[in-house]
């Protein structure tokens, strides 16, 4: 009994070795296959059943097209991996260079903006100073315009005049026009700098926007790990190696499945040839196999080696099991190729995005080149503004000094008129005091005259008859008489009311 079991085991082992159906070589029976084993069915014995198995097995061999396609996908993906590494390296290098240049240009732009801001601040300060000076001058001129010259100062004039009528206001207008022209020139220079800075800022933002938009979007069909890496730009690790590994694994599974189908076909042919009347059928059904399918020597026309009934029954039993799993293996091959096509499409999408990223980075680089070609003019515009501003600001300051001088002169003129009124009031007072002194002196002189006249008359009455007339010719003369009159003309101080003089005094003293 033990010898019989050993002989049976050896026969089965030889059968599996000769037809490639041992567990290490047959994926349909392997524990690694995703296809689950089915319960063994009764061993088929009729030629028709075997022929149907052979026809189904032959039809399954057309799946070699999927294997060829899988090989093409893997080869193409490997090529695209190499291309993606080169493109990503070029894009990353170019992107880093652009970012470095942008940082330099940002510093240049920041300096120009600082010049613009400083110029705007200085211009605003100049305008405020100019406005204050202009307001002061306008106020002074308005005071001159509303201050009427006292009529008693010009008694021979029929028209009343203001203090403004005695100065040339046209000089003020010319000076203000010159200041406005310089201010406008400075404003125009600043506006040109602002526009240049805005244009430069727009170009920098455009380049930045292109760089930002060139980053790869999320690829939804990737696994979570590859999707996370693919969501970044060319500087991130490429997701293609992981996808290539997945593709190679599926292609290997498909090749293994195809090999099992070929071995199953070989076993079907062998079984038919060991069946009475099956030789012609086997030869007829194996004439037009798909290109690239390799089979055993039996299909090449060699006559089969004789086998015993027991060995044939074991072979048919294995054949029946494999025949039940052919459709499952085919389904697995189709699933694999479908998944590979989807994954390969994702690779194509990634490559398209990578090409698009490289194209956008190149576009940003060309715009950067165009911008750098205008960099000299941009920097020069800032320098031109500084020179023009210094020139116009110098002119404005010079004319502002003239404006201040005019304002001081007109203010002095207005103050001098008030002091003139005060001086007139003082002179009126002094004349009044002089007239009082003079009137008092004249009264005293009149008294002395009357007294002298009375005494002369008394002397004449007492001694006149005794004295000869010619003893002193002036003996009979009248006393001296005096007359008071101005020695330097007859013009009197203008008659200005005390109220006018009092208001002038208050203005001079700063009280009104």
Q: End-to-end distance, in Å? A: 147 Å
In one word, what is the shape? rod-shaped
Q: What would you call the quaternary organization?
A: single chain
Number of helices: 10
Query: Over all CA atoms, what is the radius of gyration?
Result: 63 Å
Content of β-strand? under 5%
Structure at a glance:
73% of the residues lie in helices and 0% in strands. It is mainly α. Helix 1 packs parallel to helix 8 and helix 4 (170-213) packs antiparallel against helix 9.
Explain the overall architecture.
There is one protein chain. The chain has 512 residues and is mainly α. Helix content is 73%, strand content 0%. The chain has helices spanning 2-19, 47-60, 64-146, 170-213, 224-230, 240-273, 279-285, 309-373, 375-463, 498-508. Helix 6 (240-273) packs antiparallel against helix 7. It is rod-shaped, with a radius of gyration of 63 Å.
Keyword list:
512 residues; mainly alpha; 10 helices; rod-shaped; disordered N terminus
